[in-house]
Specification:
Elements lengths: L15 E4 L3 E13 L2 E10 L4 E6 L3 H4 L2 E2 L3 H12 L9 H14 L2 H11 L10 H22 L3 H13 L1
Antiparallel strand pairs: 1-2, 1-5, 2-3, 3-4
Helix pairs in contact: 2-4, 3-4, 3-5, 4-5, 5-6
Length: about 170
C-alpha cells in the first residue's frame, strides 16, 4: 500500500487561520528565530480577542492542527447543524462537558456547531449552570469568529446570525 502524500499548506502574512485550542487568529509575520542554537522558522499568530500572540514553529503546524479558515460549504454545513434538534445525552455532566470540550478543541466548525446547538437555551427553559454557560460561550465565540471571517462580516453580525438561526 502506498501512503498518500498530503499537499503542503502554505500560510501567508495577513491571513486568518484557526488554531483548534484558541480559535481564529491572524498571521502577523513569518520569521526566523534562533532558539537554543537552532534556527527555527516561526509563524506568528495574533489572537486579538484574547490579546495573545503565538509563535508556532513551521515544523509543528500539522501537530497543533493549525488550518486555514473553512470553505463556505463547511460553514453552511455548520449553520445547518444549528437548525437541528438539540441532542442531550443522559450521562453525567462531567462526562458531557469533556465531550463538548473535545469537540470545541477539534477545531471542526460542524462539531463546534453541535455544541452550540446542544447547549443553547431559549428564555423559557431552565437556567444553565456556570460551567455549561462557559462551554456554550466558548463554542459560540469560536463559531461566530470563523463565520465572521468566512463571510467577511463583523463578529457581532455573525453572532446575531447564529442567534437568528437558533431562535427558529
Amino acid at each position: 500500500m502506498v501512503a498518500k502524500k498530503l499537499p503542503t499548506v502554505t500560510f501567508n502574512s495577513g491571513e486568518y487561520v484557526v488554531y483548534p485550542t484558541h480559535g481564529v487568529g491572524k498571521i502577523s509575520d513569518i520569521s526566523k528565530q534562533t532558539i537554543a542554537g537552532t534556527e527555527l522558522e516561526l509563524l506568528v499568530v495574533n489572537f486579538e480577542k484574547d490579546k495573545m500572540t503565538l509563535r508556532i514553529p513551521m515544523t509543528n503546524l500539522k501537530n497543533v492542527g493549525l488550518r486555514k479558515i473553512s470553505e463556505p460549504e463547511t460553514i453552511n454545513q455548520a449553520l445547518e447543524t444549528l437548525k437541528g434538534k438539540a441532542k442531550v445525552r443522559k450521562i453525567m455532566w462531567s462526562r458531557r462537558a469533556q465531550e463538548y470540550e473535545n469537540k470545541i478543541n477539534s477545531g471542526n466548525p460542524v462539531s463546534v456547531a453541535e455544541v452550540v446547538r446542544d447547549l443553547h437555551r431559549r428564555e423559557n427553559i431552565a437556567e444553565q449552570s456556570y460551567s455549561e454557560r462557559q462551554i456554550y460561550e466558548q463554542a459560540f465565540d469560536r463559531l461566530a469568529s470563523e463565520v465572521a471571517v468566512c463571510e467577511n462580516i463583523s463578529v457581532d453580525e455573525a453572532g446575531k446570525k447564529l442567534l437568528g438561526i437558533l431562535a427558529k
